[in-house]
Amino acid sequence: MEYLNAADLRERTARGAKAVAQLVFTETPMSTSLGEGYVCLARLDEYYRFITSDNEALRLELFESNVRDYAGSTAVNNAIGETLRSGTGENFWWFNNGVTVVADAAQIAGKKIVVREPQIVNGLQTSHEIYSYFQTGGQHSDRSLLVKIVVAPENGTARDRIIRATNSQPQLPAGALRATESICPRMSRWSRPWSCWPAVGGSGICSRAGSPTWRSSWRRSGGSPRTDPSWIPPWFRNWSRRNDEGIRSTR
What we know:
Largest sheet: 4 strands, mixed
Structural class: alpha+beta
Shape: globular
Number of helices: 8
Distance between the termini: 68 Å
Radius of gyration: 26 Å
Strand order of the largest sheet: 2-7-3-6
Helix content: 25-40%
Number of strands: 9
Mean pLDDT: 75
């Protein structure tokens, strides 16, 4: 017989029943010999079933440990929704970082992972967009989502550190994404001999290392990098004029 005081009763009442959820995966999950978690791909419709109840309501209790709330119609969420609705053959998980689930225990049973006390600590926006997608008649089209399941002990700081780490990515300015455009390697190769970079807007250059050879030839010509852009390659001037407004809008 076990005697419980008022504090014990409050703690057990707050704890509630242990939630158990099952996630069907598409391929054999990756894991380590220690068995502290799994990384797998799950079809979008199977993940939808994972985050919804029998009456297809979103299981909000799965997000209690998430530090964020659903942000609604933001640029990022709209982009996720557009990717879900796109009719291309490209798989969804190529364009999404996936979700992180922290659990008390996880075990493979056939083609399913049985997860005890799951908490989705990263990927709330993605989860909401997937839920909305299927609620409005979306089809999975054999596309998948990357899911990481981490088995962390209830005691200690492991869970808090996982939540903090998976939600601490630095904010990337929109303009930084232009570095992936094909024009950037061409700019780098063109400017390397002079150790300089073409300036935004096509009006000249911004000197970096200040190559002595370039400086002396520029002085002899009497030109100015700010007032005489005639020696800048035409392909860069044309690109700058077309993209100047877009670049300035991201500052």
